[in-house]
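Entry:
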Amino acid sequence: MNTEFLRRFKYLSACLFLLGLLTTCGEQNESTAGGGNQLDADISPGEQAAEATAEPVAAIDSATDESFVYEVDRFADIRILRYRVPGFEDLSAQQKELLYYLSEAALAGRDIFYDQNYKHNLRVRRTIEEVTKHYTGDRSTQAFDHFVSYAKQMWFANGIHHHYSGAKFTPLFTEDYFAELINGTAGLANYPLRDGQSVEQLIAQLTPILFDPTLDAKKVNTADGVDKILTSAVNFYEGVTEQEVVDYYASKLAGAGATPVSYGLNSKLVKVDGEVTELVWKIGGMYSQALEQIAYWLEKAITVAENDKQRRALELLVAYYHSGDLEDFDAYSIAWVEDTDSVIDVINGFIEVYSDPLGYHGSFESVVSFRDEATTLRIDAIGARAQWFEDNSPIMGQHKKADVAGIDGKAIIVVMESGDSSPSTPIGINLPNSSWIRAQHGSKSVSLSNIVGAYNASPSKALEEFAYTPEEVTRTRTHGEQAGDLHTDMHEVIGHASGQINAGVGTTRETLRQYASTLEEGRADLVALYYILDPMLIEIGVMDSLDVGRSGYDSYIRGGAMTQLYRIQPGELIEEAHMRNRQLVAMWSYEQGLEENVIERVVRDGKTYFVVNDYEKLRVIFGQLLREIQRIKSEGDFEAARDLVENYGTQVDSELHAEVLQRYAELNVAPYSGFVNPRIVATEEDGAIVDVSVQYPQDFMAQMLEYSERYSFLPTEN
C-alpha cells in the first residue's frame, strides 16, 4: 500500500456517543471468476485464513493505562474507538487458546452479515477494496478523500446502507470519478467479475447501485401502509410480498404448540417455481463456505473447553450449523443458558432480528468474552432479587411471572466482536430471544464492561450544550456513569426477563409484527427507569443515592426527546427500533405530565431544553406506560402497538430537529461510535499453540482490509 496514503489516513476518527442515551437474495452460487477475495476452494477450513496474510497489516501498540489512546479515527458521522482487554494475561493458557479459536470463528462469519444486509454488498465491498489497495492515480484530491470516507462508512455499516437509519449512503464523488477509479486500478486489481463480465460492465452494474437514490433506498422499511418486504433492501427475502411472508409463517406457527422454534431465524424466504420456500443457512446450504470455517474453529474450541457443559453447548452449536434444524438451535440455546460456570463465553449465530422488517430472520453476529468478576457482583445483586422486582412491578397481576426463571447476569470483558455486533456494538445483551426457553430455562444477561469503559473514557462534549442547569450538568458528571451502568443492568437482567404472555396468545413477533422490537426495547427500558429511582437499589448496595436515578431520568428524557435526533437526516422519520422506543417513552411521558408540568419544554436564548421538574411523578408515569406496553405484549394487541409507535415513536418535529443538528454541528461531535477490535495472536511451535497474546490495532482501514484478506469466504453472489 502506498506509504503516503497510509500516512495521510492513519489517524483520522469519528462518532457521537450520544450523551445521556442509554441503550443499550440473489442468484444462487453464481461464478465469482475474478473475485479478488475468494481463496482456493481446495484449501481446508482454517488454512485459508492462515495463508491469506502472514503478518498483520494494522499498526499496533501496547495498552498501558497511561498511554492508551481510545479514539483513533473519524469520518462522516462516525468516530472509531478502541477497547482494552483487562485481565487477559491472568487467564490460563487453556482459556487463552479457547478465546483464540472462538475469535477466529467469530471473524469467519463476517461476510454473511454483509450479504444479509444487501445482496450487492459483497460485490461493492470487494470492488472498493481493490481500488483502495491498488489505485495508482492521485490520492491527494478531495474526490479521493470522499471515496475513502465512503469506503469507511461501508465497512462500518457492513454494507452501503447506514447502520442505524438504514438509508443508502450518498457518495460525495461522481459517477465519472468512480469509473475513473476502477479503470485506474484495472491493471492491478482482481475485481469480482461474473463469468465473461468486463470491467466496463462491472462499472455499469455498480453505478446505479451506488448512485441511484431510488434503487433499494432503505435497508429496512418499517413505515406503516407500505409493503415492508418489497420496499426493504435487506437480503432476507426475494420474490415474495409482505402478505405472503405473514401467511407462510402463520401456517408454520399454527399448531406449533407451547415450544415453537423460531421459524425463519436461519433462512432466506424466496419463491421457487411459484412456491414460497426457505433457503436454509447451513453447511451444505446457503452460506456454507463461511459456516464451514466457523464450524472448523468451533471444533478446535471444543478440544479446550473449560468444562463438560461448555463442551456440550459448543458441540450442539456445530451440529446446528450442519443440520440447519432450528430444534437443534433450541437445544444449543438451552445448553448455553445452563452453562453458568464457564469464565469464557461466546455468542455465535443468527441472533437478532432487528434487520428484518417483520422480525423473523436473524443477522449473524458473534461476541467472544470472559467474565468480569468484579463488576459481576453488582449484577448478581440485581439478578438475585429478580422475583422481588417482578412482584413489585406496576404491571397487571395477571401479566406477572409467579416464578422468574434463572437469570444469569454478569459483566463481561469483550475480546472479539463480529457481524451485527461490530464495528458498532451493543453495551448490554440478554439472550436467548425465544420466549419459552426464557420462561422454562432462564436467560443470560450481560453488560459489556470494557466497551462501556471505552465510552466513558472518551465522553461527548454535548452535556453542557443540552443540559438546562449547572446542577443538571454536575449531577450527570457525578452520577451519570453509575446511572448508565445500572440502566443497562436493569434493562438486560430484569427488563427483558419480566412479564409473561397470556395463554393462547402468539409470540410477540407474530402478534405485534413490525412493532415488536420497538415495544420490547421500550418495555425493558421502562423496567430499568421505574426501578432506578427505587430505594431498594441503595439498600442492596448497587446505587449510591437517588441522585443516580435522577441523573438517569435527566439523560433519558434529554436523549429521547431531543438529542438523538442528531442521528437522522432532515426529512427522515425515525425508523430504528431503539430510537423509536426512546422517543416514544420520552414524548408519551411528556404529554401525560403536561397538566402538572412534570417535564417542561423550555426555550432559552433561542435554544430548546427538556427539563424534569418532578422525578417522583415521572416515575409514576413510567410505571403507567410500562403497564400498558406489557398489556399490549401479553394480549397481542397489534392496534394499540401501532397507535403507540406511530403516534409517539416515528414522527419528527422538523424545527426541533433542525435546531439539534445545528447545535451539534457547532460542537463538531459525531453521532455514532464504533470500535477497532483487538487482534488475538497465537504463537505456534511444532504445530501446537504455546502462547496467545492481545495486540491493539490503531488503524480502522487497515483492520478492515486485513479482515477481507483473511476472512472472506463467501462467493460474491449467494
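The longest helix spans residues 470-495.
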